[in-house]
Amino acid sequence: MAEQLFYFFIYPGMLFAGIIGIIFAWADRKVTARVQFRQGPPVLQPFYDFIKLLLVKETILPKNGSVIFFLLAPVLGLFGATAAAVIILMPALGLTSGFRGDIIVLFYLLAIPTLMFIVGALASGNPLSSVGASREIKMVLSYELSFILIIAGVILKSEMTLQLNEIMALQQSQGAFIASLSGIVMFIAALVVIQGKAGMVPFDMAEAETELAEGIFMEYSGTAYAIIKYTKYILLFILPVFIAEIFLGGLHFEGIHILWSILKVLLVLVLMILIRNTNPRLKIGQAMRFYLLWINLLVIAGLVLHYIGI
Length: 310
Known about the structure:
Elements: H1 2-9, H2 14-35, H3 45-56, H4 67-92, H5 102-109, H6 112-123, H7 127-157, H8 164-174, H9 181-197, H10 209-212, H11 222-247, H12 257-278, H13 284-307
Helix pairs in contact: 2-11, 2-12, 3-11, 4-5, 4-6, 4-11, 6-7, 7-9, 7-13, 9-11, 9-12, 9-13, 11-12
């Protein structure tokens, strides 16, 4: 029992994934600043911001909302992100062999944070937060279909295995999935999907600072908002790791493979940051059409290419 709690709360779970996620957030801000010809923050700035929110800023509760659900939603969102982090990171770090169907479980766990953000926004009683929640619901309905099709494609390419460690082992013995045309097509689709799941531009309509003033997070402050930020830090870390595991040959943290594995994850992160800095925010209708039509067609094309052996 103590070992499982250590995995969940310390390593490779909540504490470890959150700290690496904060570093990734700094890299995101630093690269964004350089693209805009600015200096950018020091490496410890995201840590200072998080600690200030967690320990200094006051948590203000909504007057017209449901306080219980308003406060419970961020905690449950953090739980979902942490559970997903444990399942994603443990096989890569050689701590466990996984369990049958863990990649299917990941599909549901990775949806929990976003769903909890929606619940929290609706519980706040703020009309602008409700608009943000409405947009987030539409985004979830759009990209989750693409995400499950991508997972189905990975299962097909891995000879119908549902275990993440077996998917990585197969790639290490037979070559990364991205080495095939079907793998490239599905990798591109997966990259766009995790951009939406992470709530990064051009798919941040639910927050839209210039339109909705943080939208779904408008009423959050202090410790509650710190938990939300921490959840997003974890997602910023584990989503690139997950994509690297299922498309880029898996991760193996031993010897020279440590450097190669880190470079794979950083490659996905850099691509996400570049997408964020080279595209304007889409309208919600444009984003839905993009996912439901073009990304789904792209994934289906990848499935067809796999079926014909390309």
